[in-house]
Design brief:
alpha+beta, 17 helices, transferase, GATase_2_dom, Glutamine Phosphoribosylpyrophosphate, subunit 1, domain 1, 2 domains, seven-stranded antiparallel beta sheet, 474 residues, six-stranded antiparallel beta sheet, Rossmann fold, elongated
Length: 474
């Protein structure tokens, strides 16, 4: 899961790309980068947070009225400096590209490009594969007469070769800004317009921050091209079954975002309402309901309302610590729990506490949090999740790509409860998840919970993804 932004307007694009990346920082902490265009590409990227990668000096040299930016959360590959986005290729025209997502057939595509197209790829990032595939197809077109039709025709051939998720922003030198989304719309991508410029971003919060009022989602399978005269061209490149990643609403997206017309905060309130009903069916009678900050706040509020008990903050978060879920090693995650969270003892001592969290992946972080609550005098500690058990690898860009990472893969709920040392454990139901997020609407990818993947996933490819990810984590 990464964050992308693309701008074309009349002023320096980087002056909006940089704050836009800050708004999207929660989507990736591993690397950041931006490229702008004015009589040539100007690139700055590197490992680390946006604030670490950029400074006034390198921002000053990123001239141009159009550009793209990226924050990285590693999926394919080990996440080396060479994998940082955006990427640039010099022909045809000159193209820069960044993307959010994960190509299931990345390895085969890379091998084919090297062997059949005589391309040298310098990274293990699938964005570089998409960029080279687009370059190959554009090379086959009439290069002397670039039009939106030739661009969309080339994209149609690219789409046919890609399996997986992708939300892409791209600058084509002296031509314009391109954005496109996979046919299932697994990864989010929005467009904003303020009268003089256009912006594409992974979440609406970036568009809000930058003052864009007119917004809409890039549709699944849709490509949008804005030329240098600010004329807009759009085309449905490929049709598929809409399957927005439901984990965006559970965990990844900021609560003040709107994705595919659904407010993330409102979705989490509804998820809390559904979870509250489930806690009631399990006969939980806590003295107080507390969220694991920050994602669970809305859900915890609704659980407390449904149960008719107090809702309190019991854990205070140090906001200068990275998100523990996307830290690369388990040792770092466990250490970060104590650094990140500190209990309010007076709200916990002598009480039966119901903790609300978004999900359990490995279980180690949950165990540490429960131990922390017990250490300050809680009488009982219940744990409830507003998502179902995670059991299946995500192949679309969330760092859950091996079966061994899921505590629920080979343990019952009672066994998980014992493993994390909770007095009771309650999960959201699969029906409650979809009902809570979409108010009964369909069109979500729930593969990590249900094992039902919206795209073709050949068995050998899934095994290869798992093996690669395990090697990268060693």
């Amino acid at each position: 899961m990464c964050g992308v932004i693309g701008i074309i307007g009349q002023e320096r694009a980087i002056d909006r790309i940089y704050p836009g990346l800050l708004a999207l920082q929660h989507r990736g902490q591993d690397a950041a980068g931006a490229v702008t265009f004015e009589r040539g590409f100007h690139l700055k990227k590197g490992n680390g947070l946006v604030l670490n990668v950029f400074n006034p000096k390198n921002i000053e040299r990123l001239d141009g009225y159009m550009g793209i930016g990226h924050v990285r959360y590693p999926t394919v590959g080990a996440g080396s400096a060479e994998d940082a986005q955006p990427f640039i290729i010099t022909a045809p025209y000159g193209i820069s590209l960044a993307h959010n997502g994960n190509l299931v057939n990345f390895f085969d595509l890379k091998k084919n490009l090297i062997e059949n197209s005589l391309r040298y790829l310098n990274s293990n990032c699938d964005a570089e594969v998409i960029l080279n595939l687009l370059s190959v197809e554009l090379d086959k077109m009439n290069l002397k007469r670039f039009t939106s039709d030739t661009l969309f025709a080339a994209l149609n051939k690219v789409y046919r070769r890609l399996i997986g998720s992708y939300a892409v922003v791209s600058v084509i030198a002296n031509k314009g800004l391109l954005a496109f989304r996979d046919k299932n719309g697994i990864k989010p991508l929005m467009m904003g317009h303020d009268g003089s410029s256009y912006c594409f971003a992974s979440e609406s919060v970036a568009l809000d921050l930058l003052g864009y009022k007119k917004m809409r989602d890039v549709l699944p399978g849709e490509a949008i091209f804005i030329d240098t005269e600010k004329k807009l061209y759009k085309k449905k490149i490929q049709r598929g079954r809409k399957a927005t990643c439901i984990f965006e609403y559970v965990y990844f997206a900021r609560p003040d975002s709107i994705i595919d017309g659904i407010g993330v905060y409102e979705a989490r309130l509804r998820l809390g309402e559904e979870l509250g009903k489930e806690c009631s069916r399990h006969g939980l009678t806590p003295d107080v309901v507390m969220p694991i900050p920050d994602t669970a706040r809305g859900a915890a509020q609704m659980v407390a309302e449904v149960l008719g008990v107090k809702h309190r903050e019991g854990l205070i978060k140090n906001r200068y610590i990275y998100r523990t879920f996307i830290m690369p090693t388990q040792a770092e995650r466990i250490e970060a729990v104590r650094l990140k969270l500190n209990p309010i003892k007076t709200e916990i001592q002598g009480k039966d506490v119901l903790l609300i969290d978004d999900s359990i992946v490995r279980g180690n972080t949950s165990r540490e949090i429960i131990a922390l609550i017990r250490s300050v005098g809680a009488r009982k500690v219940y744990y409830a999740l507003y998502s179902p058990p995670l059991r299946f690898p995500c192949v679309y860009g969330i760092d859950m790509q091996t079966r061994g990472e899921f505590i629920a893969r080979d343990k019952s709920i009672d066994q998980i409860c014992e493993s994390i040392d909770a007095d009771a454990l309650v999960y959201q139901t699969a029906d409650g998840l979809v009902k809570g997020v979409g108010e009964g609407a369909e069109g979500f990818c729930t593969a990590c919970f249900t094992g039902s993947y919206p795209t073709q996933i050949p068995g050998p490819l899934l095994q290869r993804i798992e093996a690669d990810r395990m090697m990268a984590k060693q």
